[in-house]
Structure to design on (574 residues):
């Protein structure tokens, strides 16, 4: 006996109609498995070959976007680094003073005569020199500019624009504008819920690439003042902030391409790929030793991803939430064929799955975008979750940045420092992934890692008075534990929300994390060292509040992401 499925036409020509056109399927080989368990999209994804050849191929290319996010995001560390510098000697005394370190004994004698040493006597003052070779003369700012040490960072934009001493605050705008660009995720996340993960990711990535290429071409080959170049670089950095959006979108896509059995692994792969991007940027910076060459290397890496955007799959959960069954069937067949699965392995289950859909889902009109936002705002459960994850995101990133300041004690190469930090982060991400697969699940794992982080934050200001080496160890362990907490939260938060608002909710979560990342350095630089311990204790108190609020959230381990109540599906047409 053979089973044939004909076209299901929707009422009034609704575009959400379902056209099923499969090959004949033997009922005897498939119906017996249909009655074993309730059929969900999650179970169908498993039947199509969960985490198989299809996923390996696409996860590799999708995570190139994750790596590019790290490469662009950490550019500021090297491209706008502040190298060692001193005042340039008067032209009448030494006409060609371009080397930071003395080139001979005469040069060293003149430098020591004109430029005072720091209190520890190891280096020269950075922003002042004597008006003459007399050490009793008046100290003045550097009237002839500065000389920079290129042995570590090479030629940075800091040197080109002289963003040191009184001009140093301007340099912070390069980091601030990139952080501000990340707030675009508040809108981009909503657009991804409306138009799809693939379309919005492709659009944002292409926009980012074009903006970077145009601004870099102008900066490199068009004559201009340094102020104009600074403005173009700020625009470039703002556009670079869009990588926060692309990372969030592909993270959601990674989770939604697989079943609930592998969401934690998929998310962890993306996070670890981010740390690989940090290592790649470090390599680029070490080889380039020039801020513009480094910019071009980063942009070229983004360009490598562009051809793949055409082949990148859409999220099956998004297609299901939008009732785009033709596209969903085509995607499932593509997954199954790539994974060498037979039609009989999954298609009968998909047919039964469609027959079990309510009429309002199969034939109903789609909810207007504005109405969906209104439904979100008036839903107490959703709003409670949104406010909770906002505080969670803010606190996590604030603690991450705050703990990272402990790395400043390490007197090692900045390249090695970034690599060590990347390894510590990756270890934290992997630990978080392992923990959420145990009995601790999502909530228990987050509580454990955040509690360890809180302990480190409290210990750092106490131990730093007695042992800098112990402080470095605690700071590294704190970075490890907060990385684990971040890994858990990035997987936990998307699972709390329905597909139709998942990307927007995740954008809300990440945007508040950005606020925490901005606030942390402001607190550290604006409060005197005497009161810094109190900021640590306040941060620890905030972490305790987050832990308590997390206990009120529902557990999501092993719960299919398509089982979350969805406004697009479970709504009243009254």
């Amino acid at each position: 006996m053979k089973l044939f499925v004909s076209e299901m036409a929707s009422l009034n020509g609704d575009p959400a109609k379902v056209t099923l056109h499969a090959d004949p399927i033997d009922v005897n080989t498939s119906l017996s498995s249909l009655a074993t368990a309730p059929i969900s999209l999650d179970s169908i994804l498993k039947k199509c070959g969960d985490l198989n050849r299809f996923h390996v191929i696409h996860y590799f290319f999708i995570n190139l976007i994750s790596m590019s996010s790290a490469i662009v995001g950490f550019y500021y560390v090297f491209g706008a680094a502040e190298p060692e510098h001193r005042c340039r000697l008067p032209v009448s005394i030494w006409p060609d003073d371009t080397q930071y370190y003395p080139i001979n004994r005469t040069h060293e004698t003149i430098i020591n005569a004109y430029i005072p040493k720091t209190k520890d006597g190891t280096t020269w003052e950075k922003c002042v020199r004597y008006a003459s070779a007399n050490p009793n003369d008046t100290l003045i700012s550097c009237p002839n500019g500065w000389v920079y040490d290129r042995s570590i960072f090479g030629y940075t934009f800091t040197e080109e624009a002289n963003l040191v001493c009184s001009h140093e605050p301007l340099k912070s705008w390069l980091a601030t504008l990139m952080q501000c660009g990340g707030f675009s995720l508040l809108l981009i996340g909503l657009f991804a819920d409306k138009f799809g993960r693939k379309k919005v990711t492709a659009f944002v990535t292409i926009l980012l690439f074009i903006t970077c290429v145009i601004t870099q071409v102008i900066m490199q080959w068009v004559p201009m003042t340094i102020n104009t170049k600074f403005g173009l670089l700020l625009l470039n950095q703002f556009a670079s902030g869009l990588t926060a959006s692309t990372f969030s979108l592909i993270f959601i896509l990674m989770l939604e391409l697989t079943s609930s059995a592998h969401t934690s692994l998929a998310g962890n792969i993306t996070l670890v790929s981010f740390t690989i991007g940090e290592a790649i940027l470090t390599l680029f910076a070490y080889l380039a030793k020039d801020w513009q060459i480094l910019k071009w290397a980063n942009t070229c890496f983004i360009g490598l991803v562009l051809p793949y955007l055409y082949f990148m799959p859409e999220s099956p959960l998004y297609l299901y939430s939008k009732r785009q069954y033709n596209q969903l069937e085509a995607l499932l067949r593509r997954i199954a064929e790539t994974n060498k699965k037979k039609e009989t392995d999954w298609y009968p289950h998909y047919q039964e799955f469609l027959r079990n859909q309510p009429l309002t889902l199969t034939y109903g009109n789609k909810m207007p975008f504005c109405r969906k936002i209104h439904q979100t705002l008036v839903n107490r459960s959703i709003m409670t979750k949104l406010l909770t994850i906002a505080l969670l995101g803010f606190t996590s990133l604030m603690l991450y940045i705050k703990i990272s300041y402990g790395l400043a004690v390490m007197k090692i190469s900045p390249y090695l420092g970034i690599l060590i930090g990347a390894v510590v982060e990756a270890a934290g991400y992997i630990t978080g992934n392992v923990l959420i697969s145990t009995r601790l699940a999502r909530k228990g794992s987050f509580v454990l890692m955040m509690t360890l982080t809180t302990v480190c934050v409290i210990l750092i200001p106490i131990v730093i008075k007695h042992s800098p080496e112990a402080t470095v160890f605690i700071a590294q362990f704190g970075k490890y534990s907060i990385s684990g907490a971040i890994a858990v939260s990035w997987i936990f938060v998307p699972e709390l929300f329905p597909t139709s608002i998942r990307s927007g909710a995740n954008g809300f979560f990440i945007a508040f994390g950005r606020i925490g990342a901005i606030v942390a350095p402001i607190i550290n630089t604006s409060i005197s060292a005497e009161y810094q311990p109190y900021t640590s204790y306040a941060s620890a108190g905030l972490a305790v509040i987050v832990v308590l609020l997390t206990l009120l959230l529902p557990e999501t381990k092993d719960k299919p992401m398509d089982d979350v109540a969805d406004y697009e599906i479970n709504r009243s047409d009254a």
User: Anything to note?
Assistant: DSSP finds 24 helices and six strands in the chain. Residues 1-35, 361-365, 567-574 have pLDDT under 50 and may be disordered. Strands lie at 2-3, 25-26, 85-87, 128-130, 139-141, 146-148. The chain has three domains: 39-81+160-353, 84-149, 368-559.
